[in-house]
Amino acid sequence: MTWQSILKLVPKNKATLSFVLVNRKQTEKMFADIVALTEEPSKLRNLLQTIKGNNPSLEEVIQTYSDSPHADLELDEIKANLVKLEEAIDEMMVGLKDMPFKTMKELKIMVDKGIIARDAGDDTQLKEILAEIDRRNTFSRQKMANYRDIRDKLDVLRIKSDQPYLSFEGFPDNSKILQDFAKLLEQEFKNNIILVDYSSINDFILSMTPKTKKTGTGKKMVVTVVDDKPTLDKKKVIQNFYKKNISGKKWAWNDDGNKTDLNDKVAAKKIFIASNTKLSLKGVFSARSVSKYIKAVDMTGGSVGKFVPNKFPNGNSVPKVLLLEKSSSNAMNLNPYAKMLLTNVFSGNWFNKLFENIRMNQMQTEAEADSIILDDILQAIKQPKGKSKKSISDTDINSIRAGIKNVSTKGDKGLKAEIKVLLDSSSALEERLNKVTQNMRKEQLTYLKDDFTTKEANSFIEFYKELVGDDPDEMKELVVEWFKDDRPISEAVNVLDDEGKEITDDSGSVITEMKEVHSPNHAKISLYGNAVTPETAYADGLKVMSKHGEYDIGTQTNRLRNQLLNMSDFSTFVLNTAKDLKEKGGLTKLITDIVRDASAFEQVTAERSLSFLAQMAEHTNSDEVGKAFKTIDDDPESDNAIAVAKQLDGIMPELLTEMTKQIVGAFELKLKEFADNPAKFPDKQVMAAKFQFIERQNLLTEGE
Asked: What single-letter DSSP state applies at residue 174?
């Protein structure tokens, strides 16, 4: 900016104001220029307000020129001039209110102020603005005809303040979409505002949704559309237009100064409910659908309470043990034993299959396995031709890589989040990866008998350190060999220099070093050259603590090792458990011992499975398990107890099948309840749940 231009300007910033205030002639000239203004010096007024608030202070404002040869006014004089300056602006504004607009821009500025005042519900200011416009607007009708936007805004401003209207954001001026929407509603469109003659927001909603009549209650309730066919057809056209062009946009109902956001979750729910849009189940609801239902509910936000199944198809209530408690009420945790039922078919030697799943969970939890698979995908997609080390197909890896833009520019955390989104959006891909995960977990079982789990091995190292007190000579006697699927995790690799060439020793032999190439999943331990087994380690006092150090899970792992690897049948296991628990209330105590805390994930045991099965059988069958347990508890050594245990073993596949059927049915009933009557569910969750059920998990369909 040149000095010449500065001298001709009414100050608009600190620099120009500083230049003017410190000089007497410039201050006098500013007063003269202000009197001649034809529009409000809003930037100057705002700057003066900030000085009044001491942010910045007057001293800070004038600092730039206060010590220059240009300055010829003292601070007290400058302060007095500031007071005069405010008075001059006020006088100018009074005169301005009666001065005719010189340009259409001046009129437009005043009209826009009126729109702001109206939207803010300030009727007093709006009336003052309209009065001033009427006094100052001397433009001819012919002149105004060329400025349609200003005319339309003026029309809006002159409408009675109590007339409702719809306002919109994100649409261009005079949007054709809004014009067409107004035509369909048979209402008036003015400057991106639709003026309506509805008495309430509910009347507006009914203008584009079928009017219905309900008769009866509960399951006998009948909903009948009472609109005639022409009216119904018209409403369907409006509804379809709304869904295609307006839904999801920022728009609001304005009435007598009050504004209701129609994009708000609650308002969106009301519009959806009023539309009587039919929701119905898509396809067959299966065991696989249960996990999809839970995933959908977890993504709705807010408490999951209203979405939790409470009735089985047989009419019985759902026991609390079906779901685990969690620190957050915003997630639904299915009991791990229920997951086992839903992901397996039990027949014949059902016992081995069920407890194989329990052994798998002890070796590696589902969450741990999922984390390993996610890391495997991450490392594979980070390389242009990277491959999975966990048997995930190249096709699936390439598909995931192609679904993420700019992989090389993103961090691991961001990439993992995007991978999860891709998996959630493709049930087929997710199912294939689940099979990879299950196979990986089954492989762990091979090494359960004689080897240590990685958690056990690390705990043994700490255990031994405590015994010998970190004595270096004693620690040398401890040898831990880590394996991945029975292969050493380390192997000799050639050492390379900075240029990638092999390094040799004086004899010309290539120098090698041991490098970790696999992540371990089991370990072998020896002391003083003698092999140590998990059995002897636990006998010597080894403890393996839970993730948060709250309880010993090692004894459970070893007990499971001994119980299940050496057990021939279910009846023997039940009888032995009854004997072990005789002094603690026996098998019957398991029926009343409801363990639902999150730690249950880390404590998946054979005994707890009996507790779960007994409690579920009480609600899904005829309490066959509980009745058998009572008989066995009476005398676990008796022939009658043996016979009852064998009989229970024989009917368990049938009981497990029915349990699975009832669990799936309970979730299906809750989903049908949502589809039939979404209004019963929390206002702020309905639209999110609808989106998840339809768009993400493909469980529901919308429409006829």
From this structure: T
b/e code 536-568 from CB counts within 10 Å (16+ = b): ebbeeebebebeeeeeebbebbbbbbebbeeee
- Does an H or E element contain 514, and which? strand 512-516
Domain ranges (residues) in the chain: 3-96, 160-277, 365-446
CA pair distance 613, 365, nearest whole angstrom: 20
Dist. CA 520–CA 457, nearest whole Å: 11
What span, in angstroms and rounded, lies between the C-alpha atoms of 660 and 616?
10
pLDDT for the residue 595:
53
Residue with tokens 């203004």: 37
pLDDT means per 10 residues in the chain (704 residues)? 45 84 89 78 84 86 85 90 86 72 86 83 84 84 78 73 78 86 89 81 80 68 80 88 83 76 74 76 93 90 91 95 72 86 84 75 69 88 86 89 87 87 78 80 66 82 79 86 80 75 82 74 86 79 57 51 58 89 88 57 67 92 94 94 94 94 97 91 88 89 74
Amino acid (1-letter code) at residue 681: F
Cα atoms in the 13 Å half-sphere on the side-chain side of 484: 11
Helix, strand, coil percentages, rounded to 5, for the chain: 55, 10, 30
Q: Measuring CA to CA, which residue among 246, 241, 155, 260 is closest to residue 198?
A: 260
Distance in angstroms (rounded) separating the CA atoms of residues 492 and 517: 10
| Matching residue, tokens 């000799």 | 492
Q: Hey, what amino acid is at 55? A: N
Distances (CA, A) of 112 to 126, 277, 335, 666, 678: 11, 40, 60, 58, 42
3-state secondary structure of 120: coil
> Sign of torsion, CA 695 697 698 704?
negative
208 neighbors 185 (Cβ within 8 angstroms)? yes
Which among 483, 479, 474, 421 has a CA at the least distance from the CA of 446? 483
Torsion of CA 138, 143, 148, 149, to 10 degrees: -50
CA–CA gap between residue 430 and residue 422 (Å, rounded):
9
Those residues whose C-beta lies under 8 Å from the C-beta of residue 40, and which sit 6 or more positions away, are 93, 96
**What is the distance between the alpha carbons of residues 270 and 206, in angstroms, rounded to a whole number?**
11
> What 8-state DSSP symbol labels residue 390?
S
